[in-house]
Design brief:
Layout: H1 7-26, H2 28-32, E1 43-45, E2 50-52, H3 58-81, H4 91-105, H5 115-142, H6 146-154, H7 159-166
Antiparallel strand pairs: 1-2
Helix pairs in contact: 3-4, 4-5
Length: 168
């Protein structure tokens, strides 16, 4: 026999996690503009380290990095907190930004060109899988009456009506 959950404990835990998520979203502007504190030179020298970049300067390198990191960060938050059945499709833009961020980290000159080659196979898996989930949910909501489903498939519909049916 399972022990019933204490509503006050689960409510406090949910409130705490929600507060952390709100804080993570609220600090986004600070993270986004943090690149402005970096030097405008190709060689960054401090008493602790010396680093060089192939970008025009460290400010540009950080700008490219932040412009790929922040959307990825927000998409990951959305993916891990979304309770909708379609949240798996968020993996497509997550993968796109992850490849772009990898290109920035590797100081690649073709930053936004190659990731499409890697994203298309992922999309070939994720998009049909999400649509199958949708079809299963649709079947559960509509009932298991396959005859009426087949009859509905035989009805002539306009292109616009078919598109609207995809999103109902």
């Amino acid at each position: 026999m399972t022990k019933p959950l204490n509503p006050s404990k689960t409510g406090k835990k949910s409130l705490f996690l929600g507060g952390i998520i709100v804080l993570l979203i609220a600090i986004t502007p600070f993270v986004f503009y943090s690149y402005k504190s970096l030097p405008e030179t190709q060689i960054w020298e401090t008493s602790l380290f010396k680093a060089t970049t192939s970008f025009p300067d460290w400010l540009s390198a950080a700008w490219y990095f932040i412009n790929k990191f922040v959307p990825l960060y927000l998409l990951l938050l959305w993916f891990f907190t979304c309770k909708h059945w379609w949240h798996w499709i968020i993996l497509v833009p997550i993968t796109m930004y992850a490849f772009q961020l990898w290109g920035v980290v590797n100081e690649s000159n073709n930053l936004d060109e190659l990731e499409l080659v890697y994203i298309v196979p992922l999309m070939l898996i994720i998009v049909p899988a999400v649509y199958l989930i949708r079809a299963k949910l649709f079947n559960e909501v509509r009932g298991k009456d396959l005859d009426s489903f087949e009859e509905e498939l035989m009805v002539k519909k306009s292109t616009w009506q078919q598109i609207k049916d995809l999103f109902r």
